Amino acid sequence: MNKKLQLILLGVFILLAVYVKSNYIVSTDLFITQTLQNLNFFWFDLLMKFISKLGYQITWIISLLGAVLFFMLLKKRKEALVIFMSILGALFLSEFFKIIIARPRPDPNLIYQFEKLARFDSYPSGHILFAIGFYGFIFYLIYKNLKKRLA
């Protein structure tokens, strides 16, 4: 990714963070959440619960340890270290920005929360940062290896 695009994405993140910090309830957020929650498809509910469980702490710990072990067995120590560090970086960024932004979760009377959440702060999403750090790196490795084989 080139530097100009990185700066643009960083700027978008900062603008979004400032906006979210200054607005407890973002009407677009609430509209999208309520619209999705009003979809009464059995398969959609199962899909959303599955996706949410991918971000559970025990799931990402098992995924991370499995990936590190897999790369170590393949003697790909650099990849094992990078994936481990990317997750640590994602966790650090999540905690750092949650402290700075301190955006509370929406009131459970406004949206359905399918389980009691342990944390009060909601932005940025630890689920999303984990997904970017872990799955993003895995997809990058797949792309890199496929590109080599197709060339």
UniProtKB/TrEMBL annotation:
<feature type="transmembrane region" description="Helical">
    <location>
        <begin position="122"/>
        <end position="143"/>
    </location>
</feature>
<dbReference type="InterPro" id="IPR000326">
    <property type="entry name" value="PAP2/HPO"/>
</dbReference>
<feature type="domain" description="Phosphatidic acid phosphatase type 2/haloperoxidase">
    <location>
        <begin position="81"/>
        <end position="148"/>
    </location>
</feature>
<keyword id="KW-0472">Membrane</keyword>
<keyword id="KW-1133">Transmembrane helix</keyword>
<dbReference type="Pfam" id="PF01569">
    <property type="entry name" value="PAP2"/>
</dbReference>
<feature type="transmembrane region" description="Helical">
    <location>
        <begin position="54"/>
        <end position="74"/>
    </location>
</feature>
<protein>
    <recommendedName>
        <fullName>Phosphatidic acid phosphatase type 2/haloperoxidase domain-containing protein</fullName>
    </recommendedName>
</protein>
<dbReference type="InterPro" id="IPR036938">
    <property type="entry name" value="PAP2/HPO_sf"/>
</dbReference>
<keyword id="KW-0812">Transmembrane</keyword>
<feature type="transmembrane region" description="Helical">
    <location>
        <begin position="81"/>
        <end position="102"/>
    </location>
</feature>
